[in-house]
Design a protein that fits this description.
One of its GO terms (molecular function) is DNA binding. This protein is mainly alpha-helical and 138 residues long. The chain is built from seven helices and no strands.
Length: 138
């Protein structure tokens, strides 16, 4: 289940309501959050004096959202490019792995794809297909 993020304004509202003497459950009922969410926020405010989220763990992203959108524009122009070609066209002065390119495309909902190679239709095939279609036209 996805968590609903508390905006900073609501966080300060919760701190203010608690300062006026409202209980965790009363604040939670009024704002539509569970009382444990309220109590954790108040505890964090007591310990740190702030209501902002603490820094998250993990490596920072190599590309910005703007650069990711640029990659999507490139893939729309050339939909069957390989990740190696996209990497060179996308950010040529930056050292990126092809895995980064594939991860960004996957996050944007672009699946890996390749051109389907199929044999060309011979003149005989074309003639028979046309005859089949004309026979079923009505």
């Amino acid at each position: 289940m996805a968590r609903r993020r508390l905006s900073e304004a609501i966080r300060w509202q919760i701190i203010g309501m608690h300062a006026t003497g409202a209980s965790f459950k009363a604040i939670g009922r009024q704002l539509g959050y569970h009382y444990t969410v309220i109590s954790r926020l108040v505890r964090k405010h007591r310990q740190t004096g702030a209501v902002k989220d603490r820094p998250q763990s993990g490596r920072p992203r190599v590309t910005s959202e703007r650069e990711d959108r640029a990659l999507l524009r490139i893939i729309r122009r050339e939909p069957f490019s390989t990740s190696t070609v996209l990497k060179r066209a996308w950010l040529p002065n930056r050292h990126l792995s092809t895995r980064t390119v594939r991860n960004r495309l996957k996050a944007a909902g672009m699946a890996a794809r390749r051109v389907i190679k199929r044999p060309r239709l011979t003149d005989d095939h074309k003639r028979r297909r046309l005859a089949w279609c004309l026979a079923r036209q009505r």
